[in-house]
Design brief:
Number of domains of chain A: 2
Distance between the termini of chain B: 31 Å
CATH class of the largest domain in chain B: Mainly Alpha
Radius of gyration of chain A: 26 Å
Strand content of chain A: under 5%
CATH class of the largest domain in chain A: Mainly Alpha
Shape of chain A: flat
Distance between the termini of chain A: 46 Å
CATH architecture of the largest domain in chain A: Orthogonal Bundle
Structural class of chain A: mainly alpha
Number of helices of chain A: 15
Low-confidence stretches of chain B: none
CATH superfamily of the largest domain in chain A: MetI-like
CATH superfamily of the largest domain in chain B: MetI-like
Structural class of chain B: mainly alpha
Radius of gyration of chain B: 23 Å
CATH topology of the largest domain in chain A: MetI-like fold
CATH topology of the largest domain in chain B: MetI-like fold
Strand content of chain B: under 5%
Largest sheet of chain A: none
Oligomer: heterodimer
Number of helices of chain B: 14
Helix content of chain A: over 70%
CATH architecture of the largest domain in chain B: Orthogonal Bundle
Helix content of chain B: over 70%
Mean pLDDT of chain A: 83
């Protein structure tokens, strides 16, 4: 007995201490590796954007901008280079598509998930389960029929064709998340409100909507990122200069022999900011919702 | 009595926008695609095209290697990020950045890291640190395909790491405490405790990711661009070429529909797993 106590009180043997030191060093090494891995392409964007001359960094392999300057950001803001003549309008088009996708996804998914999980709709879940099927089909495959269908609907060269596509592809997942989240809200809350004379609309508006806001935030983020990352649908469905989005404009540069890369990278960095900012604003909510999803599967 | 009827009307009104959207912009395009790709002669045309079989092989390699490497690393790294230390938490914030950044712009940046007109950042570092001349990355099929895969892993690994991190956090505390008391640490703990508990989540995520990655377009189109000489195309970029360069959208649909023999079983297993586990808890 006293031997056990003595062995607990004794400092850990050297072997254990050495083992701990090695694990610690390995963790730090891994951390440094992950940092470099994650940041490298982002650093490269900055490197090119901070270069006042076209082509000095990306063509001669400097690992530090020779004369760092914010000139290319000024060029973008003033629309002062080839391709960037319509920067603000193109950014506006991207924002319009992104925001509409976000708002409509949240509204449509929230209404549908309330109807399916909280109202006496017998076979409603059949529809939402069936729609999961579309969620598993790669979105890019459907661009080919979609191109023709947009024509048939009279939506050729119309931002609403892109928005409709994004919302249609984003809602199944949004409904899945919302239904999982709604399980956390006791049905007794709904019942209590009904006993107090609330109609179904009031239950939705006063009880359900406020309590599901964390999940709605995560869904909004998901929909925005979907629209913001898209190139294929925006390129194929919007052919005119007027509706061109920033993503499509940036991709055009590949056909050019000598485009202004430094200004393009500055524009790319500015384009990257909104989803990053939104992610950090909603970080806690997103991780809370992810946890629920994780516990389900 | 009229209240119940009102509720039913309301429920239908609530679900109507979604149902309309689903029918018009999801089900109809799928049906239309099946109709477009239903002519058998399209598939003999495909086989006859010397670009088709290499693209199919590239798709298989891209999905097979890319998804598995990404998922396995994400699973391991989620364990690393479980540690409650300030610097690991701070690192997690940086680590998820690739997921939140737009794909096209980062893909272009990644392309420039590998190939400038003379040297990109990577080759420059290789010669500075190791004194070796880096290869011309997009002149070689294997290197170009590998570059595509590396970018794909960079972009999407953080998302799945977050999912697995959430899965690990959902493991009841007493289970992991019991494992610690029993002396299960390191590899043994991972093999006997953590992995069995996460196995279903891992399977569902892998299947889902396989289905999505079969349609990966942005990575290949913007990183290698099919270089060298069309040899790293995948089926979606090939379909894009058929539809918009050659103006033969039916052949494009046939090209992407040729993955159905693999996609359908994946989706069937996936839907069963998802239904059993999460939808009818």
């Amino acid at each position: 007995m006293s031997g056990v106590i003595a062995s607990v009180l004794r400092p850990p043997p050297r072997r254990v201490r050495l083992h701990r030191l090695v694990t610690e060093a390995a963790a730090v090494m891994l951390g440094i590796l992950l940092l470099i891995w994650s940041v490298a392409p982002i650093y490269n964007m900055l490197l090119i954007a901070l270069d006042p001359e076209e082509g000095e960094v990306e063509f001669s392999g400097n690992i530090w901008p020779p004369e760092p300057s914010l000139e290319s950001f000024r060029v973008v803001l003033m629309q002062d280079a080839r391709y960037l003549e319509h920067f603000w309008r193109q950014l506006g088009n991207s924002v319009y598509i992104g925001l509409m996708t976000m708002v409509l996804t949240v509204v449509v998914a929230s209404l549908a998930s309330f109807a399916v999980s909280r109202m006496p709709l017998k076979h409603g879940s059949l529809l939402t389960n069936a729609s999961l099927l579309t969620y598993t089909i790669p979105v890019s495959f459907l661009i080919f029929p979609f191109y023709r269908i947009a024509h048939a609907y009279g939506l050729s060269n119309d931002p609403w064709a892109v928005i409709a596509a994004h919302v249609a592809f984003a809602t199944p997942f949004a409904i899945l998340i919302l239904r999982q989240y709604a399980r956390l809200i006791p049905i007794e809350l709904d019942d209590a409100a009904r006993v107090d004379g609330a109609s179904s609309i009031q239950v939705y508006w006063r009880v359900h909507l406020p309590l599901t806001t964390p999940a709605l935030g995560a869904i909004a983020m998901y929909a925005l990122v979907l629209a913001w990352n898209d190139y294929l649908y925006q390129f194929v469905l919007l052919s005119s200069e007027k509706h061109m989005t920033l993503a499509v404009m940036q991709a055009q540069l590949f056909d050019d022999a000598d485009p202004p890369w430094n200004a393009m990278m500055a524009a790319a960095i500015m384009y990257s900011l909104p989803p990053v900012a939104m992610f950090f604003a909603l970080r806690r909510r997103i991780s809370a919702v992810l946890t629920i999803r994780g516990s389900g599967g | 009595m009229s209240g119940a009827r009102q509720d039913l009307t309301l429920a239908i009104a609530f679900i109507a926008p979604y149902a309309a959207l689903f029918l018009a912009f999801a089900l109809y395009p799928i049906g239309y695609a099946l109709w477009m790709g239903s002519k058998l002669s399209l598939y003999t045309d495909l086989i006859a095209d010397p670009l088709y079989l290499p693209s199919a092989l590239n798709t298989a390699l891209f999905v097979g290697v890319g998804v598995n490497v990404k998922m396995f690393l994400a699973l391991l790294l989620s364990g690393f990020f479980m540690q409650p230390r300030w610097w690991i938490r701070a690192l997690l914030v940086v680590y998820v950045l690739p997921w939140t950044l737009p794909a096209i712009q980062t893909a272009i940046s990644f392309r420039w890291m590998l190939s400038g007109e003379e040297d990109g950042l990577v080759n420059r570092l290789l010669s500075l640190l190791l004194g070796i001349d880096g290869p011309i990355w997009f002149n070689h099929w294997g290197l170009a395909l590998g570059s595509n895969i590396v970018f794909y892993v960079w972009k999407w690994m953080p998302f799945w790491t977050l999912i697995f991190l959430a899965g690990r956090m959902a493991i009841p505390r007493d289970v992991s405490d019991a494992a610690t008391v029993d002396g299960a640490t390191g590899v043994r703990r991972f093999v006997h405790v953590t992995f069995p508990l996460l196995a279903n989540l891992y399977l569902v995520c892998t299947l889902l990711s396989i289905a999505w990655t079969m349609g990966e377009f942005t990575t290949v189109y913007f990183v290698s661009g099919g270089a060298p000489v069309w040899s790293t195309q995948v089926l979606t970029t090939l379909g894009f070429h058929y539809a918009f360069d050659v103006a033969n959208p039916s052949l494009a649909v046939a090209a992407v529909m040729s993955v159905l023999p693999v996609l359908v079983p994946v989706v069937v297993v996936l839907l069963r797993k998802v239904e059993a586990r999460t939808l009818q808890l």
